[in-house]
Specification:
Blueprint (H helix, E strand, L loop, with lengths): L12 H15 L11 H11 L4 H14 L3 H6 L2 H8 L6 H16 L8 H5 L6 H12 L8 H10 L11 H12 L5 H14 L18 H5 L15 E11 L5 E5 L10 E2 L2 E3 L8 H12 L3 E13 L3 E12 L9 E4 L11 H14 L1
Parallel strand pairs: 1-6
Antiparallel strand pairs: 1-4, 2-3, 2-7, 5-6
């Protein structure tokens, strides 16, 4: 470990902290979760920002705070409510874990987000990064908050050639931040590292000439900033062919289905769909048979209205979208509902199904 961090000895740490924090205080973006140091708001923002761009998160964060302005409000909310508030953000286990953890905070810590590394790290869904972000930003505790942005910045500053895709590498970067972090202002220091990675020290073509800490950067000095960080490629994604149908009954109501409480997109709503395993199944009658066999639905397909692709981290859905008519009477249950076009807005749908409904409305017009 000491070998990996040998370049720290070349840095004037106090000067590095000063230059980084001064830049951040001048240039930081005006973000809604920076208005105050409420640990609940910071926690929500950090969960939302996992694998999601800042510009995407801002409107979601604002709406979430309107719906659940306090930790108690989120603890008491129905799951359908929180899924609707999260609709479109993806990675829905994040908000389920957040609510579970918030409920634990309410019961175990009287509604106060704990300010010790051990206690906050024990909460469901709170990993080292989220714990470090909340502790440093909200409470001013000098804990590292190491995400992809921070690993990229530190790999260049200290010329660390470890693969950041390996879980074991994170410990190296956490140790580096522990040695570099400002104990006087850990909040600004950690946010500055994140901001630097987002605005200046970007994955491709970093803006080195604008960097406030260029003078400390070993990668820039060696001319290898475009080669760092080292990141091994992900495994190949799997492609799945699906056929989905937006089907109406004789009263003009549309059939929707609630997904399983476990697994991908758990407890979210969808339009009836089946996986197509063989090319021959693309025929209309074969699809109608698949709906009957797999879902117990008698649906007459009318026409294909489009194709939608949706990319997850590990698989790609290619969905052929049809309109259809429900032939038999549907008995509504907790999992199957018949809803009007107005009522459908009350249900939380993942992005691909939102796209399908939009496609349906466009074709209908």
């Amino acid at each position: 470990m000491l070998i990996e961090l040998k370049n720290i000895e070349k840095i004037n740490i106090n000067a590095f902290q000063h230059d980084l924090i001064s830049w951040f205080k001048r240039e930081q973006r005006d973000l809604p979760w920076r208005k105050d140091r409420d640990p609940y708001k910071i926690w929500v923002s950090e969960v939302m920002l996992q694998q999601t761009r800042v510009d995407t998160v801002i409107p979601y964060f604002n709406r979430f705070m309107e719906w659940f302005p306090t930790l108690d409000d989120l603890a008491e909310a129905e799951e359908d409510q929180i899924l609707k508030a999260w609709e479109g953000l993806g990675y829905y286990s994040r908000v389920r874990n957040l609510q579970s953890a918030v409920r634990e905070v309410k019961e175990k810590y009287n509604g106060v987000v704990p300010n010790s590394p051990k206690e906050i790290s024990s909460l469901k869904g709170v990993g080292p990064y989220t714990a470090g972000a909340v502790l440093s930003i909200a409470y001013g505790i000098p804990e590292p908050a190491v995400d992809g942005n921070v690993m990229r910045v530190i790999s260049r500053i200290l010329s660390i050639w470890e693969d950041i895709a390996r879980h074991a590498s994170r410990k190296i970067f956490e140790q580096a931040v522990r040695e570099l972090i400002s104990h006087e202002d850990p909040s600004s220091f950690n946010q500055a590292l994140m901001e630097l990675g987002a605005l200046i020290c970007t994955p491709a073509s970093p803006s080195c000439l604008l960097c406030p800490v260029r003078d400390y950067c070993q990668a820039f000095e060696e001319g290898v900033q475009n080669q760092l960080p080292i990141k091994s490629k992900k495994t190949k994604t799997r492609h799945v062919e699906l056929a989905a149908v937006l089907a109406l009954n004789h009263t003009g109501k549309m059939l929707i289905h609630k997904r399983s409480p476990t697994g991908l997109l758990a407890n979210l709503w969808e339009f009836p769909n089946v996986e197509i395993l063989h090319k021959v199944d693309h025929g209309r009658y074969k699809l109608e048979e698949l709906y009957q066999q797999n879902l117990g639905l008698q649906i007459r397909l009318e026409k294909a209205i489009g194709q939608i692709e949706h990319v997850f981290s590990h698989l790609v859905w290619n969905i052929k979208v049809y309109t259809g008519t429900i032939i038999t009477e549907i008995q509504e249950t907790e999992e199957w509902k018949l809803v009007s076009f107005e009522e459908i807005k009350e249900y939380a749908f993942p992005v691909p199904y939102q796209k399908m409904f939009q496609l349906y409305l466009e074709k209908k017009e």
